[in-house]
Structure formats: structure tokens, C-alpha cells
Amino acid sequence: MPIRALSSRRRFLVLAVAACASAALPGPVRAQVGKPETITAGELSVLYNPATPPTSFIQNGQPAGMAIDLIAEAAKRLGLKPVFRAHSDVAGALPAISNGQYDVAALGLMRTPEREAVVDFTGPWYYGWFPLVVDRASGIKGYADLRGRVVGAVKGSIQEKWLQDNQPEIRLMAFPNEVGMITAINAGSVDGILMGSAQLAEAMRRYPQLVDVARTPTPYPNAFPLRKGNTTLRAALDKALADIVADGTYVRIYDKWHAGNPLPEPLYRDYPSLVGQRKPGEVGAK
Predict the structure, then answer these.
(1) Alpha-carbon span 122 to 128, nearest angstrom
(2) Neighbour-count burial of 190, counting CB atoms closer than 10 A to its CB (0-12 exposed, 13-18 middle, 19+ buried)
(3) By residue range, what is the domain housing residue 225?
(4) Which residues are within 8 A (CB) of 58 and not within 5 positions of it... i.e. 6 or more apart?
(5) Is residue 121 one of the residues assigned to a domain?
(6) What is the dihedral of CA 46, 51, 54, 56, to 10 degrees?
(7) Given its phi and psi angles, is residue 275 left (phi above 0), alpha (psi -120 to 50 degrees) or beta?
């Protein structure tokens, strides 16, 4: 056999083997490395609370709020269409996520060790505190004045647990959401309420007879919960959140919903890129 013919045959065999090896690695699988797993392909199913402005609520018939804007922006960057579904029962939110009814929740929900046993969480997107709110005319100046009296908190919230653990002399009344809780204090059914800091300004604006008399810092960040074990979606959302912070989008969204307030200081630890955008304690333009 001529040397040239043998060389050509060898080249053909090498190319054939290479082609078979390439075919053995399925193209779709390679393309899906790192692709977020969602209930419906191309969509991000989002549970949200329709009554907690400015975190998540309904405005002009559409979901709105800081959590909504952040999740919508993250979904856009991941090439997913966000599908928002209202769910006002905070206590039922985590089971709904854990059972796979939704991909993620856009709520003012703190990432606590107890909750991390049930669901996974993204990185932090907000830090707050617990404001104790009372009627101005009540004369109540703090927790000491509420011993033996009734304070409301949302069922399943970290505020409810904090009251149980730290204020045993206060009688707790649990509510399904903050709307019912605020209605109760305005009706005189409770002597005080423990709510989320993100909702405080809106509550004060709508009900000027209310005032916060104590603020308790929380070490827990607000983070987006998702089904335990969905590592691809968690990694994708974490990357999107980091990018949203790094390019200044987070600050713009924060200022939209918390105008005149400085960024939560613990976020500078979680996202060092914030330092170059706004100094701790500095307030953005209103």
C-alpha cells in the first residue's frame, strides 16, 4: 500500500474517533451546565405578599416593591420570565416553596437557622430591625409598659418568635399578615404591634396616630427562599444579585423604595463593591 494512501487513512481514522468522542458528550447537557432549574422551563414562579409595601404589594393592579424589582431584574438577567402569584399567608410561604409550588418567594423574610432547615436562601438583599408600634395616645413608651398586655405579630414571622423568646410577660396575638395586625391596633384590639422595619415608613404615613417606641436590631438578613437542594437556581440568583449590586442597579432600586435612608450597613460586608458607590451612613437623593 502506498505511503500516501496509508497516511490519508490514518488521518481519516483520527478524525472519525474525534467525531465519535465529541458525539459521546451530549450537546444539550453541556449547554445546560449552570442553567437554573425552574418548575416551568423559561419561567421563574414567584410567590409574593400583596400587602407589605414597600417590600411587596399590589400597585395599579400589578406586583410592586423592592423585592419584586430585585427578583424581576434577576430573572431578566437569567433569561427567565417572572410569573408573580400573590400569597398573603406568610406562615404558609415556606411550605409552599419547600413543596415545589413556587421557585422562589419575594418577601421580607429573614434568613434564620430554623428556616434554613426547611428551605435554602439566596444571599442577603436587605437588613432591618423590629419596630414596636403603638398608638400615640396610649402613653406606652416601651416593652416595660406592655407587661400583661397584648402585642400583635405576624404568624410564623421572626418577630413572633422574638416576642415568645424575649418578652414572656407580654401576651402575643398572631395575625396572618400585617394588614390584619394594623387594623387590630387601629381598632384597639391590641396594645402594640411588632412589624418589619421596611414597612414602618408606609404605616406611619397612612396612620399618623401610630408611633414606634422601640427598635430592636436583627442579626438576620432578608434573603429570597427557594426549594432546598436547587443549587443551580440558588447559584444563578446569587450571581445575579451580586451583579445587580456591583453595577449600581441595587442602589437605584433601594433609593426608589427607601428614599432618604442610608443603605443597611451589614450589606457593605456582604457586597464590598457598595463602598465605591455610597459611603456607609450616606443618604441618596430623595
Answers:
(1) 17
(2) buried
(3) 43-128+220-274
(4) 50, 51, 64, 86
(5) yes
(6) 0
(7) alpha
Do 195 and 159 meet the contact criterion of CB atoms below 8 Å apart? yes
Residue found by looking up cell 421580607 in the block: 108
C-alpha cell recorded at residue 230: 436547587
Residue 244 lies in a domain: yes
Q: Give, in degrees to the nearest 5, the angle at Cα 49 between 210 and 225.
A: 120
Q: Which helix (H) or strand (E) holds 82?
A: strand 81-86
* 30: pLDDT strictly greater than 70: no
Q: How many CB atoms lie within 10 A of CB 218?
A: 18
Grid coordinates in use for 27? 450537546
Instruction: Please count the structural domains in the chain.
Output: 2
Cell numbers linked to 101: 409550588
Domain limit, last residue, from 193, 219, 245:
219
pLDDT for 88 equals 80
Q: pLDDT per residue over 82-98, tens digit each?
A: 999 999 877 789 999 99
Q: Side chain identity at 59, as an amino acid letter?
A: Q
